[in-house]
Automatic annotation (TrEMBL):
Keyword Transferase: yes
Protein known as: UTP--glucose-1-phosphate uridylyltransferase
Ranges of residues in domain Nucleotidyl transferase: 9-275
PANTHER family: UTP--GLUCOSE-1-PHOSPHATE URIDYLYLTRANSFERASE
GO MF term set: nucleotidyltransferase activity
Pfam families: NTP_transferase
Gene, per the UniProt record: galU
EC number: 2.7.7.9
Naturally occurring in which organism (per UniProt): Zhihengliuella alba
Keyword annotations from UniProtKB, A to Z: Nucleotidyltransferase, Transferase
Family: Belongs to the UDPGP type 2 family.
InterPro entries: GalU_uridylyltTrfase_bac/arc (IPR005771), NTP_transferase_dom (IPR005835), Nucleotide-diphossugar_trans (IPR029044)
UniProt catalytic activity: alpha-D-glucose 1-phosphate + UTP + H(+) = UDP-alpha-D-glucose + diphosphate
UniProt entry tagged with the keyword Nucleotidyltransferase: yes
């Protein structure tokens, strides 16, 4: 395998308005919505760190100061917990602070996901990097990101994550046209379409919010004009990369079959809260019997 630069950086776009969760997100970033007792964004940062990416850049926007505060030290709170001898809560508070090296840059204009990724160019430089969307939570026992990094290092191109969805639901996602790669457990992407009608979709393989990208994507994004919704779409840039040759070109995909929650969708968000709570030793034993009793009443 050709020697390639390691993937060490993660980019987390977090500038969206979260309108699907109004009025809860009127004054609070959608990324700070609690999933049990941690904000959704902390699960995403933890996933990046578990995959070895402890250099994290968040792309934020106006009214997102709470994100920076959450990952910052709070000396007065830490001192109060220490004085009370509440070491467990002190550990939980420090968990977010100690995750990794977190940086922030503001997306001044909301021009789409492609533009948000382009905002990371100066920080990322000429290295491959991961992009994790805050709306998607991946099960803590899954190794999707690690597998995608492996494929990127092997191919030198960009790697996306795909999941099979109901064909009638594909219009809510980017959709991939793929072909098998002989002898490997990943696929090559021939084309991408952003939110196609079900009748025009090339497959039922939906793009979900995990990417490991070649730095060549920045050059393509700089030449990519507004697409669907008048925004600069990352999908459009990847569609271009898929048809290019040379180092850093080509797009590949890992088809994910594990646990994933879309916390931008109210029902999926509630499922994430319930399932993650049930899996915990401190909450599951009390919650599961109540859920069975509740379900029996419907």
């Amino acid at each position: 395998m050709t020697h390639r630069k390691r993937v060490t950086k993660a980019v987390i776009p977090a500038a969206g308005l979260g309108t699907r969760f109004l009025p809860a997100t009127k004054a609070m970033p959608k990324e700070m919505l609690p999933v049990v007792d941690r904000p959704a964004i902390q699960y995403v940062v933890s996933e990046a760190v578990r995959a070895g990416l402890d250099d994290v850049l968040m792309i934020t926007g106006r009214s997102k100061r709470a994100l920076e505060d959450h990952f910052d030290r709070v000396p007065s709170l830490e001192a109060a917990l220490a004085d009370k001898g509440d070491t467990r809560k002190l550990e939980l508070v420090n968990e977010a602070t100690d995750l990794g090296d977190i940086h922030y840059v503001r997306q001044i204009d909301a021009k789409g996901l492609g533009h948000a990724v382009l905002c990371a160019k100066r920080h990322v430089g000429d290295e491959p990097f991961a992009v994790l969307l805050g709306d998607d939570l991946i099960g803590e026992d899954e190794h999707l990101l690690e597998e995608m990094i492996r494929v990127q290092q092997e191919t030198g191109g960009s790697v996306i994550a795909l999941m099979e969805v109901d064909p009638e639901a594909i219009s809510a996602y980017g959709c991939a046209d793929v072909e098998r790669v002989d002898g490997d457990d990943y696929v090559r992407v021939k084309g991408l379409v952003e939110k196609p009608e079900a009748s025009e979709a090339p497959s039922n393989l939906a793009v979900i919010g995990r990417y490991v990208l070649s730095p060549r994507v920045f050059d393509v994004l700089e030449e990519t004009g507004p697409g669907r919704g008048g925004e600069i779409q990352l999908t459009d840039a990847l569609e271009s990369l898929a048809g290019m040759d040379g180092e850093g070109a080509g797009v590949y995909a890992v088809v994910f079959k594990g646990s994933r929650y879309d916390t931008g969708d109210k029902v999926s968000y509630l499922k994430a809260v319930v399932e993650l709570a049930c899996a915990r030793h401190d909450l599951g034993p009390a919650l599961k019997p109540w859920l069975k009793e509740l379900a029996g009443g419907f």
